[in-house]
Amino acid sequence: MDGWVFDIQRFSIHDGPGIRTTVFLQGCNLRCFWCHNPESQDAGPVIQFFPDRCIACGLCVSTCAQAAQLLVDGRRVYVRDLCRICGACVDTCYAGALIIKAKRLSVAEVLAEIEKDRLYYEDSGGGVTFSGGEPTLQSDFLAALLAGCKERGLHTAVDTACHVPWETLAALLPYTDLFLVDVKAFDEGTHRAGTGTGNRRILDNVRRLAAAGATMWVRIPVVPGFNANEEELGRIADFLAGLDHVPPVELLPFHHLGGGKYESLGRAYPARDLKPPSDEAMESFRQLFVGRGIPTIRGT
Amino acid sequence: MLPAPRIPYRERIAALTRTKLEFNAAKLARDGYHDVDDHGNIPWPDPIPFERISNHPDGGSYGARCIGQNFRRWLEVHPVYIHPMSALAGAWITTLPGVGGWRPEDRPTHLYPYHKKYHFMATGIGAMNHFGPDMRIGLELGWGGLLDKIRYYRARNRPADTAFYDAEEDFVLGVQNWIGRHVTYARARAAAEPDPEVRANYEAIAEMNEHLVHGPPRTLREACQFLAWFQAVDRMWYHGGALGQLDELLRPYYEADVAAGIIDDEMVLWFIASLFFNDTHYSQIGGPAADGHDVTSRMSYLILEAAHLLKIPSNLAIRLHDGLDPGLLRQALIYNLEDGTGPSISCAKGLDEGYARNGVPIQLARLRAKVGCNWTALPGIEYCHQDVTRQCLVAPFLLAFYELVDDPAAPRTMDELWRRYVEHLAISVRVLKEGFDWHMQHHADNLIEIVLNLFCHGPIERGLDAAAGGVDIYFLTADGLGLATVADSFAAIEQRVVIEKRLTWEQLAEHLRNDYAGAEHVRLMLKNIPRFGAGGTRADGWAKRIAETYTRLVRGTPTPLGYTIIPGLFSHGGIAQYGADLGATPNGRHAGAPISHSANPDPGFLPGGGAALTAKASAVAAVQPGWGNSAPLQLDVDARLLKEAGGLEALEALIRTHNRQGGTLINLNIVSKEKILEAHKDPSKYPDLMVRVTGYSAYFQSLSPAYRQQIVDRLLAA
To answer: CA B616, B619, B625 angle in degrees (round to 5)?
Structure first.
């Protein structure tokens, strides 16, 4: 079995406990306007173009059968509408100006990459995290990967926004040691405005995971203009405090690290003008959760 | 509880730090960039009235007697120095002027053409001081006891030529003279000092050193003072820099003084900081005793903290083993994260088990201490000649490649390239071994280990220099460099030329000869292959094969005279210098560009792979030669990655895993990327920024632009 993987990061230390390898699966069914992995949103591969790396060697131009790669007045132009994402141009681009995300990998190939850092997981209490995109959208592939990890005795985590049928998550329960669950907003209108979709199913799934006794960390992106206010975060805190098992919470401040990727995809960056929340604001938000008896992770 | 001094000890330490920064600025202005270890020498404005004795028509000063006479004369005129806020007296100004080298007639001129052909940057011939003393000898005997010992064995052995003993005697008499003049100086300063506490300090220094001219140290402060004198004179002689297992050397004095109620820990921090201000000799804390139990003590923590408080470059190492007190490692990492004052991490498993493979009992192997940039040594019983060779792995590759493409009859295959590479590498190793034999035959006639002989078990007893039979164990060492450059080059040819046939051997040769002029896409094509470090790549396979072959060639057979050579992979910091004369290589490296660093993958080896620290650590572990010499892992980490909770724990686990994997040394740099980039633009803005270049620590602003660039490149790729 194989699936679309857009990145594998070793020595990942912020996606669950210890030293981990994070496997990023392609495809997402939310469209968060602040998303720092926009290349992961489509279900299949996408091509990123970084003009500053281009050495104008012209190899991609002569390779492209669709005439999507052009040299116009000595300047490289990538016509996305003509591109069929065959990847031929990427294979010739040694300068790294053209990159294809994602790759079709087999379960065995992914597990081989995961195995490389086994010793580090053992010494750090780490393991493997499947992230995205929304990893549960490739549910069979994900289940096979999780099962493979459990066969190898590895700690597993799934980083999910829970916007999938409950049955999909339920099927993962036997193989998943930790769910890293994104809760972005409690108010449905707010959620829809920021992500393009409602959140009733998400919140319901979070309730069900808690009721099923799943180990969960809830991760909340704190995004100005979206949820970075006491009212909305307070509602999320109230919701979490009412769960059967109250999970620890990690507040993740909005950042611009993914901003450059939008340009490489030929897209506008909707969050360009947002300012990351200050440390003081983050601490004040954290107190909203602490005050409701919810433990916070990493002190943020 | 001792009464607190009016000038708190930490304020005194801060004063030493300020002086160090002033001295460093003055040295930088006077001498220019300084690319090796930061040293404790102080700038001295006046000329020193030293008149060197020569004993050779070329004007040089060679051989034991002449060296001893000159060293004594030098110490008799060397200025005296006491920092008013230091617990200790003395500082060195420069190395023994004009004394050194070999007589022209003894030099191995027949090997020079080979050294050039194979691009040796250091051959080990004529090198000094790269083994470890057993400082317990000096601490037990004192300078007077050492003098008595020299005289006793000279009388007992009755050698026909007494030059060796006479030289050692001259040296100790010189040291005693220098210490004695400090007593006088301290008294004079005390008499002129209005501040009662500073005056009392001068008086204490005078009294302490009056005893130390002859007697062995009785207290912790005196032990530190003895080590300071040793450090200073050791540096004067070819920049000697090895101290030893410092916590265990000092622990008995500490425990006795605590029991006697004459010290407290604040005072101890001041003593140790004063010792580190005096010089940056290499020393180790923590680690296994012979029976494997951990030696970490309160003294270990105090040494670590003193280095942290002083905030100047230090060459301290922690010896990591499974039983190490976890608090010591954690504290070291915290200090490293805080301001770069943490130690390097010497990995006991790989080093001890590797060294034991040479037939040495594991109990003895455990006693090796990390006392050099990349190296360890058994204190006082081993002449290991560590860190004095730089054997280029790249030059044999270029010779083999061009020979192949210039030979129309040669098969264009990887097997043929490899065969020719191994042939050249073998010749290069043979040249190295012949050079070592030459060194061992001629060295002591020209230069003697006049300082370290006194702190070894055997040289004085036998009347033989440590390089000429004075000690019991002779495992010499060799360090190869440029592993990733060669491994990636083999892999690039295999992938792009042999498998994908994107260019021919001849076209590749043409591009290399032209330094890729007009062919940037070809250069990038060759560069952007799956490289050494990613794990499971062709280049990883080549790296392992090259490391194993180099190891076999070096370790498999002894030198013609029978010396065993232990291989390592270490390039010090001079990768720019080593690459300057080398042509372009098939890994996409331009002619004259730096070659790769020690056994580390090149920066950017894992595109898009995050911090890649585990990949790098595994890669370096996989190519360890495994006989007790090192192949260091250079870990350059952006501080931001670690500042969140869980970051430090992850780093600690990474370090422990590397030890378990058989790694040998971890040189850790935790610096903010933003800060290092700012400092690179204008180094003078950050005069106190410290970095670990390789195994040694230095002020960033003191490094040459090429060295600074190396640090920046590594951090940007991290």
So the answer is: 130
3-state helix, strand, coil in chain A (%, to 5): 35, 20, 40
3-state secondary structure of B437: helix
Q: Which of B409, B590, B437 is nearest to B514 (CA)?
A: B590
Instruction: Count how many residues are written for chain A.
Output: 300
> Residue A243 pLDDT more than 50?
yes
Contact A57 B520 (CB under 8 A): yes
CB-CB under 8 Å, A126 with B653? yes
Measured between CB atoms, which of A18, A298, A300 is closest to B650?
A: A18
Q: Show which of residues 54-113 on chain A sit within 8 Å of chain B, judged by CB atoms.
A: 55, 57, 59, 94-96, 99, 112
Of B566, B576, B668, the C-alpha closest to B624 is B566
The encoded tokens of residue B333 equal: 């990492």
For residue B623, the SS3 value is coil
Is the Cβ pair A112, B536 closer than 8 Å? yes
3 state DSSP class of B404:
helix
Q: pLDDT for B374-411, tens place per residue?
A: 999 999 999 999 999 999 999 999 999 999 999 999 99
Q: CA-based angle A198:A202:A203, to the nearest 5?
A: 105
Query: Chain B partners of A299 at a C-beta cutoff of 8 Å?
Result: 644-645
What is the structure's pLDDT at B642? 82
CA B275 to chain centre: 18
Each residue's pLDDT tens digit, B34-75: 887 779 999 999 999 999 999 999 999 999 999 999 999 999
> Which residues 122-161 on chain A approach chain B with CB closer than 8 angstroms?
122-126
CA–CA gap between residue A215 and residue A173 (Å, rounded): 10
pLDDT (tens digit, 9 = 90+) per residue, B280-330? 999 999 999 999 999 999 999 999 999 999 999 889 999 999 999 999 999
pLDDT at B710: 81
Angle at A18 between CA B537 and CA A33, to 5 degrees: 85
Do A136 and A108 touch, CB atoms closer than 8 A? no
Residue pair B186/B82 in contact (Cβ under 8 Å)? The answer is yes
B112: alpha, beta or left? (left if phi > 0; alpha if psi -120 to 50):
alpha
Count of positions (residues) in chain B: 718
**What is this structure's pTM?**
0.94
Residue A19 in contact with partner chain B when CB distance is under 8 A: yes
